[in-house]
């Protein structure tokens, strides 16, 4: 208890520490926002709540890590992970997701949970259970008398995440497929009547989601660490972000992603790194309860 | 009627004789009963009431810890006991051991009911998948918090005294504790699903708004059902604590992705919303799990994940549901028992 208090006191004593924590959190939060955007996409378009989201992220990370072990430049791993995971996402859709899409939501939840177990274990069998990361070998920038350190690799990661997000948004807005996806999200039946092959749209949406996750994972392996069983924490974070932000609300997803990143860093600073997963989960519960109270207010006003 | 009596009699004889006929598998058979208990209790909310919880494992872990703390607190100071982490010498007499065990089981059950009411008060406002995710969150958070709580041993867990006397006799005792709890639970549910209460929770599953409009206080029914489920899971956890002797928070007590998911798969595999489904599912699942664990080492989790996916995707009604549909006459015996409870298939 005293340790928590003294950690907290440190924040008040040295305001610059706050700035460091926020910068760290925002840089990692940008990557959370990316996989959360993918989740919001499949959730909004197909009404599938994908619990294997985090495992797509980790799988993408391993693609990038494996390539860099083979001597390829790590930055090339990002587009390759994007493509590889798009393929895996398409297979997963054809084998499992397309059969549960019309069923009740708990079925999709459990089916994707089963997928998450399979993927985590396959990665464990293929690459071992050690934590892995890729060192890009860039320098670190220092500000404010060395109090704040910003590795260039992390900065690059944020920039790539932003570029990918902008690319996806533009694609959704201007391409034919993006328009078809948005039409399907609005009204499946009307989309079908107008000649959109919704099964194709679903398959494309799911593999796009997997691809976004894969790219996010490839960036995470360069700025952080991955391990076969870290997937579930990433899934929980994606759920926290989407539940907090709501569907189809991209600025909300980005803001919530950055916020979660910063809050987790604060929690790790005050309570210690052992509580990191507990903090992610408690945030989810807080968000759910908050949403519940909000709904209750709406219900009352209807009465 | 006579056929049914013979069927039940055969089951009872098998249940009583099993640990003596298969002495090597005593612990395995006890685990089957544990799976039956958790699958049946999961089905109370998941199958009968339509609230798919992924967090029932919270009660299992809490039951373990409560039983351990009660047993230790009867004789020693808990903080000192866990703080020594095996260094100190702590003796328990036979009387203290059994008093701790039975009091621990009772307190664990009651405490878990209380926890269920508190958690349920918050989470039962959530519907559908949000309830599942919310309760999963509760289970993960509970495990993380307990593993950071030094008073109960932190990440090291707690070591309980070993069964006094012959260890093989101990295994038989644990088998009959699980079996007894399982039988009591089964008979209780068989009765409960025929009552007004059973009809009310089925109404909540079928249409909660209409049920409320009919004058059912849905929140009270939901809390009561979950509290009853938690009571039995807590007792099962308490027995497990004594059976395992040493347990730690994340892998054995709050084992979210092991037992926490297994219970759901058992109920779905057997057929949710039926009385016999979870029982059949638990037995099949345990056999499948042990076979893959023995012959597919390394790939067992992949096989298990594939089983989960296959069950939910291709086999929605479960074994009992499928049999009822295909061969109602051939399946007359247990199917009749289900029809007697007056419930319909979801």
Draw up the topology in text.
The complex is a heterodimer of chains A (303) and B (346).
Chain A: H1 2-13, H2 15-46, H3 53-69, H4 77-100, H5 105-127, E1 140-143, E2 148-151, H6 152-174, H7 176-186, H8 188-193, H9 198-223, H10 231-245, H11 250-271, H12 276-302
Helix pairs in contact in A: 1-2, 2-6, 2-9, 2-10, 2-11, 3-4, 3-5, 3-9, 3-10, 4-9, 6-7, 6-9, 7-9, 10-11, 10-12, 11-12
Chain B: H1 2-21, H2 26-46, H3 57-73, H4 78-83, H5 94-123, H6 128-147, E1 158-159, H7 167-192, H8 196-206, H9 208-213, H10 218-244, E2 246-247, H11 249-253, H12 259-270, H13 277-295, H14 300-314, H15 318-326, H16 332-340
Antiparallel strand pairs in B: 1-2
Helix pairs in contact in B: 1-7, 2-7, 2-10, 2-12, 2-13, 3-5, 3-10, 5-10, 7-10, 8-10, 12-13, 12-15
Architecture per CATH nomenclature, i.e. the level-2 architecture of chain A = Orthogonal Bundle
As a percent range, the share of strand residues of chain A is under 5%
Helix count, DSSP H or I runs of 4 or more residues of chain A: 12
| Count of β-strands of chain A | 2
Q: Tell me the number of structural domains of chain A.
A: 1
Strand arrangement, major sheet of chain B: 1-2
Question: Residue-averaged pLDDT of chain A, rounded?
Answer: 85
The strand order across the widest sheet of chain A is 1-2
Please identify the structural class of chain B as seen in this structure: mainly alpha
Q: Regions of chain B with pLDDT < 50 over 5+ consecutive residues?
A: 333-346
The radius of gyration over CA of chain B amounts to: 20 Å
* Count of spatially separate domains of chain B: 1
Q: Report, as a whole number of angstroms, the end-to-end distance of chain A.
A: 46 Å
């Amino acid at each position: 208890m005293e340790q928590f208090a003294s950690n907290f006191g440190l924040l008040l004593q040295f305001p610059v520490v706050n700035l460091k924590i926020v910068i760290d959190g925002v840089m990692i939060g940008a990557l959370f926002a990316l996989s959360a955007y993918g989740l919001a996409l499949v959730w909004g378009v197909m009404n599938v709540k994908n619990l294997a989201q985090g495992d797509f992220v980790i799988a993408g990370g391993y693609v990038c890590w494996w390539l860099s072990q083979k001597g390829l430049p790590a930055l090339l791993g990002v587009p390759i992970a994007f493509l590889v995971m798009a393929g895996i996402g398409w297979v997963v859709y054809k084998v499992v997701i397309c059969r549960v899409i019309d069923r009740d939501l708990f079925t999709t939840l459990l089916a994707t949970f089963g997928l998450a177990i399979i993927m985590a274990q396959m990665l464990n069998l293929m690459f071992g259970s050690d934590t892995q990361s890729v060192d890009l070998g860039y320098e670190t920038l220092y500000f404010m008398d060395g109090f704040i350190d910003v590795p260039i690799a992390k900065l690059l990661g944020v920039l790539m995440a932003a570029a990918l997000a902008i690319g996806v948004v533009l694609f959704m807005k201007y391409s034919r497929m993006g328009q078809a996806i948005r039409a399907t999200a609005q009204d499946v039946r009307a989309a079908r009547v107008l000649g959109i092959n919704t099964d194709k749209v679903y398959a494309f949406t799911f593999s796009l989601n997997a691809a976004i996750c894969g790219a996010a994972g490839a960036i995470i392996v360069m700025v952080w660490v991955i391990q076969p069983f870290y997937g579930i924490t990433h899934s929980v974070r994606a759920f926290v972000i989407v539940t907090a932000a709501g569907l189809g609300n991209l600025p909300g997803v980005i803001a919530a992603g950055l916020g979660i990143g910063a809050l987790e860093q604060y929690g790790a600073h005050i309570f210690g790194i052992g509580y990191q997963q507990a903090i992610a989960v408690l945030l989810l519960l807080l968000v759910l309860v908050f949403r519940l109270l909000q709904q209750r207010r709406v219900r009352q006003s209807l009465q | 009627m006579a056929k049914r009596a013979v069927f039940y009699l055969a089951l009872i004889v098998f249940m009583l004789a099993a640990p003596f006929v298969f002495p090597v598998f005593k612990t395995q058979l006890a685990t089957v009963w544990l799976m039956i208990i958790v699958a049946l209790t999961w089905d109370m909310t998941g199958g009968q009431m339509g609230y798919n919880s992924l967090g029932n494992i919270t009660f299992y872990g809490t039951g373990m810890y409560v039983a351990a703390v009660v047993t230790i607190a009867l004789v020693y100071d808990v903080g000192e006991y866990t703080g020594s982490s095996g260094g100190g010498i702590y003796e328990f007499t036979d009387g203290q051991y059994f008093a701790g065990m039975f009091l621990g089981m009772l307190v664990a059950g009651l405490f878990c009911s209380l926890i269920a009411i508190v958690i349920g008060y918050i989470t039962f406002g959530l519907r559908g998948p949000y309830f599942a995710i919310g309760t999963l969150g509760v289970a993960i958070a509970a495990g993380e918090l307990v593993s950071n709580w030094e008073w109960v041993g932190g990440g090291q867990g707690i070591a309980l005294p070993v069964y006094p006397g012959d260890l093989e006799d101990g295994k038989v005792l644990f088998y009959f504790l699980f079996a007894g709890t399982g039988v009591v639970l089964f008979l209780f549910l068989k009765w409960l699903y025929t009552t007004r209460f059973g009809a009310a929770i089925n109404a909540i599953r079928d249409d909660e708004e209409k049920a409320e409009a009919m004058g059912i206080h849905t929140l009270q029914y939901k809390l009561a059902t979950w509290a009853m489920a938690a009571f039995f899971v807590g007792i099962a956890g308490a027995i497990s604590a004594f059976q395992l002797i040493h347990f730690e928070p994340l892998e054995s007590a709050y084992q979210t992705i092991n037992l926490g998911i297994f219970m759901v798969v058992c109920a779905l595999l057997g057929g949710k919303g039926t009385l016999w489904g979870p029982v059949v599912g638990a037995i099949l699942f345990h056999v499948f799990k042990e076979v893959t664990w023995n012959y597919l080492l390394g790939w067992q989790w992949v096989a298990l994940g594939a089983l989960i996916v296959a069950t939910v995707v291709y086999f929605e009604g479960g074994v009992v549901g499928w049999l009822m549909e295909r061969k109602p006459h051939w399946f007359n015996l247990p199917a009749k028992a289900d029809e007697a409870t007056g419930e319909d298939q979801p």
